[in-house]
Write a structure and sequence with these properties.
By secondary structure, the chain is α/β, with parallel strands linked by helices. It has three domains: 89 residues; 143 residues, D-Maltodextrin-Binding Protein, domain 2, CATH 3.40.190.10; 93 residues, Periplasmic binding protein-like II (D-Maltodextrin-Binding Protein, domain 2), CATH 3.40.190. Helix 2 packs parallel to helix 4 and helix 12 crosses helix 14. 32% of the residues are buried.
Length: 335
């Protein structure tokens, strides 16, 4: 009979239901960002599929093993997709969430002048706190600062302790797997020389054959020696290197340019300078949590506006540091 043949070739009802329900879950995730869709999916799955009676048999059993496996598989699918949908809904519009709570929480450095530090009164000051204040003003909310260091800044962001992180973080592929690094990058740093003003250095070639203090393990030590011919004298820490520089055991100190900028803010080092152009600049990125495209897009537009208006250059002037080549380049690109 035609009906019998059709029934024989038809897939078991459980497979048909599975295809339909999984399709509903996938469609739900793609089409909508609202949790109500998840409720609809559960209603379609729970009663007709998970509660489908097993076929009767002549011998009583504890249940059809194949059916139980299918049920567990469906439960696993549901759990995975429900978690995904819930997470997506939770962060569906981070910009609106920030506006609703009225505060932008930003992780910044508190020990890295002039990019992030504390004033004598305890106020967050520096280039990055000022950029955070600008973001808050654009959002129409207050700003709240949370001090971070390299060891915890990404964890604070992932854990939701901060909304945004502006904390001298290099933009690397490895970090981009853990947090959303907003583009374009807002700054860049390289290495440079801290030199006594009594020592005349106008070119990197001037350090050829000269003793230059360095930190053990710094990636640029080899380049300074091979490319520019310096005689590097490596120390285990910054304090030791600076002491050797003061004692005249070195004619210069090669270090991160932004850290040198901060050290030169200290009146105790007023007899020193950073006279050369920085080398091997690496970009810095502002970061938000993953799956917050609205917030990332908002910040991206702000960064472009900073570059267009020259705000970064203005802040460098405000905090008495030289204009970074990267900042000049980005201003020229967007102005």
């Amino acid at each position: 009979m035609e009906t019998a043949a059709a029934d024989a070739n038809a897939p078991p009802a459980i497979f048909t239901r599975t295809r339909v329900r999984v399709g509903l879950i996938i469609s739900c995730q793609i089409i909508t960002e609202r949790a109500g869709c998840l409720t609809s999916v559960i209603e379609h799955i729970a009663e007709p599929v998970l509660m489908t009676p097993t076929p009767t048999t002549t011998t009583p059993t504890k249940g059809d093993p194949i059916m139980n496996i299918k049920k567990r598989a469906l439960l696993g699918i549901l759990a995975g997709f429900s978690a995904s949908i819930a997470a997506h809904v939770a962060h569906a519009d981070a910009v609106q969430d920030i506006k609703t709570k009225g505060t932008l929480v930003v992780g910044v450095k508190a020990d890295y002048p002039p990019f992030g530090a504390l004033s004598p009164s305890g106020e967050n000051v520096g280039i990055e706190p000022d950029l955070a204040r600008d973001l808050a003003q654009r959002l129409g909310v207050k700003v709240q600062f949370v001090p971070v260091v390299a060891a915890n800044r990404m964890q604070f962001l992932e854990q939701g302790k901060i909304d945004v992180m502006i904390a001298t973080m290099n933009d690397t592929p490895e970090r981009a797997k853990l947090v959303d690094i907003v583009h374009p990058d807002y700054y860049a740093s390289g290495y440079n020389l801290m030199v006594p003003k009594t020592v005349k250095v106008t070119s990197w070639n001037d350090i050829k054959g000269e003793p230059v203090c360095a930190i053990q393990g710094a990636f640029y030590n080899k380049e300074v020696a091979e490319k520019f011919g310096a005689e590097t004298v490596a120390f285990t820490g910054v304090a030791e290197a600076l002491t050797a520089l003061r004692q005249g055991r070195c004619n210069a100190f090669v270090y991160d340019d932004t850290a040198i900028e901060g050290k030169l803010q200290d009146p105790a080092w007023s007899d020193y300078d950073m006279p050369l152009q920085s080398q091997d600049a690496q970009p810095w990125g502002i970061a938000v949590r993953l799956d917050q495209p609205e917030l990332a897009a908002f910040i991206s537009k702000a960064i472009i506006d900073w570059d267009k208006t020259g705000l970064i250059l203005q802040l460098e002037t405000k905090y008495h540091i030289n204009h970074a080549a990267f900042a000049v380049q980005m201003h020229n690109k967007y102005k």
